[in-house]
Predict the 3D structure of the following.
Amino acid sequence: MTRNEALNLLHKYIQNQNLIRHSLAVEAVMKKFAKKFNGDESLWAITGLLHDLDWEITQSNPEQHTLVAEKILNELKVNQEIVKAIKIHNYVHKIPPQTLLEKTLYYVEELTGLITACALVNPQKLNGVSRESVLKKMKEKSFAKGVNRELILKAPEELGVDLNEIIDLTLLAMKEIKDELGL
């Protein structure tokens, strides 16, 4: 699947612009981590882009989230590495991620939400967000309450990468596409 095919598919199933921006952020982050881990950048990026493909269909039934995407992607004969990573990233299913692709999506995706929230309250948007400000906001439980901080805090152990570097890479990836993200 090409990026253009993935984008067309995303737009077919997702109308909410904030969710599309979130998907673009996760795409950029996955590509950045693929570079770090010598992974297939295109495969990792498409995984990030399509990870919430079924969210608008399943948001009222979280147990179905990613299962509908799995069905859609299997019908299109999408690479099984992509399909499996997307399915696993919904921690409600309690399927432990095994590969670096799966672990990165599972543990780092939540960080994009926290960084987006930090940017939205900063007058300089993403330009004003630093590792330190992310770490500070992460400690404030009332800030971006929907972000699963436990997953972010497990990322270093699961990925073998220091939390500071994980935040730095995620911030860098998002800043590189800040205009697309509206941040």
